[in-house]
Design a protein that fits this description.
By secondary structure, the chain is of the alpha/beta class. It has one domain: 4-Layer Sandwich (Metallo-beta-lactamase, Chain A). It has helices at residues 5-15, 102-112, 129-132, 135-140, 177-182, 233-236, 271-282, 302-315, 328-337, and strands at residues 32-33, 35-42, 53-55, 58-61, 80-87, 90-96, 121-124, 149-152, 160-163, 186-189, 195-196, 200-202, 218-221, 241-242, 251-255, 259-264, 287-293, 319-323, 350-354. The strands form three sheets. Strands 3-4-19-2-5-6-7-8-10 form a nine-stranded mixed sheet. Strands 1, 11, 12, 15, 16, 17 and 18 form a seven-stranded mixed sheet that branches. The protein has a three-stranded antiparallel sheet with strand order 9-13-14, with no helix packed on it. Helix 1 (5-15) crosses helix 8.
Length: 356
């Protein structure tokens, strides 16, 4: 899309609007962390020959070369991210999403030396199989501590889903709630923003506050594997609903002296809307990094990718780490427009933010 001056000003003006009313208190007391270490556990791109990179406020460490050449990092369509956050000598670990299969997730965790028993909290961004498929096998290891919190954004995350936007689409799975109960996990289902593991926070429900209106290529079956009574009134009595991802969560951390690191695992509500919600929840305007899947693959168009790029340039984060469903159209355009800000998402790579 060729953005003319008028449309660019309109887009950037929307992006630069205050995240919350001037003088109003933010709705959540968000912790501030000294350091944040993100590791990509599941994504589509793999590779072990990258070089370490150090830039202001960030250090990028490529995945280790495995000691046994019979083993390798597994890449797949889906997403999982490990966040280790520190305040002083205290470090907490949060697992965000679980990828498509437990085999890939557990393989990559083992190669990185990640202990499931060391995880303090988990966030499931939304009810798509490529984000929760690895959950059952992960819990079945028996290593996850009982009473570990798992945050989910709403009852509709549990509804059975279909591929495509027609009622005759093929099945796309449903979360096995019983397996969560058997593992003794503390399931927290809420559309409100929540503090995670004492260090991070979820966005809660993400309103449309920018021009972004992504199309979600799945359908939901209200009442199948979910409690109709807990769904929104407009959805609960219908046999089939085209997804609007209203339950989807973003996750964020406020890094001291740097600003917000916002993680949109798939961003079906729009990555700009996700960032704006994180700003509104925290009362922090400065965005240090935007990470994750930005949902700019088909059925999204090139025009939508360029629109999101313009909005992101207006926010002016220090770094952008697009992965999963961000799409090569967006990534290529972002690399051309902001080469010093864009860093690729590679399985096994670590990104260090904050104090050394």
């Amino acid at each position: 899309m060729d953005l003319n001056r008028r449309s660019l000003l309109a887009l950037t003006g929307a992006a630069l609007m205050p995240a919350f009313p001037i003088g109003a208190a933010p709705p959540l007391l968000v912790p501030v962390v000294d350091r944040l270490h993100l590791t990509v556990l599941i994504d589509s791109t793999t590779g072990v020959f990258g070089a370490s990179v150090t830039r202001p406020g960030i250090r990028v460490v490529p995945p280790p070369i495995t000691a046994d050449y019979h083993t390798a990092f597994a890449g797949q369509w889906g997403y999982s991210l490990l966040a280790r956050s520190s305040v002083g000598a205290s470090t907490h670990t949060t697992l965000i999403d679980f990828g498509y299969t437990a085999a890939a997730l557990l393989n990559n965790m083992a190669l990185l030396g990640v202990d499931p028993g060391a995880i303090d909290a988990m966030v499931l961004s939304h009810g798509h199989y490529d984000h929760f498929g690895g959950l059952y096998g992960f819990l079945a290891t028996g290593k996850v501590r009982r009473r570990t919190p798992l945050l989910v954004g709403g009852e509709e995350a549990f509804c059975a889903r279909l591929r495509g936007t027609e009622p005759d689409g093929s099945p796309f799975g449903a979360i096995d709630r019983a397996s969560i109960g058997r593992a003794g996990i503390d399931l927290i289902v809420s559309g409100d923003s929540q503090v995670v593991a004492g260090h991070g926070f979820t966005t809660g429900r993400i309103p449309f506050v920018s021009p972004e209106r992504p199309r979600v290529p799945t359908g939901m079956l209200p009442g199948q594997n979910c409690d109709r009574r807990l769904l929104d009134l407009a959805k609960r009595d219908r046999p089939f609903v085209v997804d609007d991802a209203e339950h989807e969560l973003g996750t964020a951390f406020h890094v001291a002296g740097r600003g917000l690191v916002v993680i949109g695992s798939c961003s079906h509500r729009g990555i700009i809307n996700t960032v704006r919600r994180a700003q509104a929840v925290s009362g922090v305007d400065k965005v240090h990094a935007i990470v994750g899947g930005f949902h700019l693959v088909p059925p999204q168009t090139r025009d939508q990718a360029m629109e999101t790029l313009a909005l992101m340039q207006a926010i002016n984060p220090d770094y952008i780490i697009p992965g999963h469903c961000s799409g090569e159209t967006f990534v290529a355009a972002a690399l051309a427009a902001m080469p010093d800000k864009v860093i690729r998402s590679i399985v096994g790579t670590s990104y260090f933010f904050g104090a050394a």
